[in-house]
Write a structure and sequence with these properties.
two-stranded antiparallel sheet; about 350 residues; 4 strands
């Protein structure tokens, strides 16, 4: 408010001062603050700000997320979803892209974190809670109501999930650079075809007696047959390890030196400075089996392997004299009875340790 001054710049009239002061007095009537002294446009602006603040504080709903989209989906939202009309497949996919982008895109592309199956199922349930008539998209009577959007394991109890949310999230994960992905597919290996002469050289090495005099010759010969060793490892047969031992029987000799040399040739990039002793000792805390094994490193390795073994695989044996520990350790070690008279033990002892891969 502007005070009016006379032409001689005299002091304002007393009535004007009183009116100016009283116009800023705020009083409440019925709980509502009287702001009639403000211009009408200022009051309207304050109301808009208040309404926007209230809307921001409201919990975000599926419909509010869809309403933010400025594309063609606005017509679908108002003309179909609000009228409880089931959408066709392209419209459902369009809605799915909007919602998965809102909930998962930043997490996948920027944080490199994949949504869990619970996250995807929760989104599917929220969609049906917002639009219950979309339950009619159920894939079958036995399927859950959200099965069109997400169905864990596809109803089979194991394997891959199904639903348009699962498909869209999988496509979004493909946009991550291969080196930054959480799960990477192993590149297929080129099939190795060693020459016939290499089989002949390995057969000649197998006939040599494992004595110190032949140690160097056997070591160099096995190094020259590395391609044959790699070719045998590529086989899918469950008996490939027996085939490796049959081709290179000296792996069982020389107290494991040939095994270490073969590993160095097959895995030249491994960290030679790694403290394997600490890792194997950590395996002692994983289980209580193989308590009769004296070496703490071998005992830790056995317990680590048992922990890493695939669950649910049944193992049977026809030999009643073999303990469960020996059955589990079968692919990993070789149990033999000592032949040395100086060793007075009745239980078998470990003389050979061989990794599966």
């Amino acid at each position: 408010m502007k005070l009016e001054m006379d032409s001689a710049n005299k002091a304002p009239d007393q009535r004007q001062i009183v009116g100016f002061a009283t116009s800023f007095v705020r009083f409440e009537e019925g709980g509502v603050t009287n702001m009639s002294f403000l211009p009408q446009n200022d009051v309207q602006m304050n109301e808009n700000v208040s309404n926007n603040a209230q809307q921001d504080s409201l919990p975000e709903t599926i419909r509010s997320i869809l309403a933010k989209d400025k594309g063609k989906f606005q017509k679908v939202l108002t003309r179909k979803l609000d009228l409880q009309i089931v959408l066709d497949a392209p419209e459902l996919n369009h809605m799915n892209r909007i919602l998965t982008k809102h909930f998962f895109e930043d997490r996948i592309l920027n944080e490199k974190r994949y949504p869990t199956w619970q996250d995807k199922q929760d989104l599917a349930i929220r969609i049906l809670e917002e639009f219950p008539h979309l339950e009619r998209t159920r894939l079958s009577q036995e399927a859950p109501k959200e099965s069109y959007f997400f169905w864990r394991f596809g109803g089979s109890g194991f394997g891959r999930h199904s639903g348009i949310i699962e498909t869209r999230v999988g496509n979004m994960q493909k946009d991550i650079p291969a080196e930054e992905r959480q799960f990477r597919r192993k590149k297929p290996e080129m099939k190795i075809l060693p020459p016939v002469s290499m089989y002949e050289n390995a057969a000649c090495l197998a006939t040599l007696t494992p004595v110190p005099q032949n140690g160097r010759y056997i070591s160099e010969g096995m190094a020259n047959c590395t391609e044959l060793h790699k070719s045998l490892l590529q086989q899918k047969s469950p008996d490939k390890y027996k085939a490796i031992i049959a081709s290179f029987p000296h792996l069982l000799s020389f107290e494991g030196i040939m095994i270490q040399q073969a590993f160095d040739r097959l895995q030249p990039q491994y960290n030679k400075q790694a403290d394997l002793a600490k890792l194997l000792c950590f395996g002692l805390m994983l289980d209580i089996k193989w308590s009769e094994v004296q070496s703490k490193y071998i005992k830790g390795a056995l317990r680590i392997m048992k922990t890493l073994t695939n669950r649910g695989i049944k193992r049977t044996t026809d030999d009643d004299t073999v303990s469960i520990e020996e059955v589990l350790a079968g692919p990993f070690i070789k149990w033999v009875y000592p032949r040395c008279r100086r060793i007075n033990v009745s239980q078998p002892r470990i003389v050979f340790l061989c990794a599966k891969d």
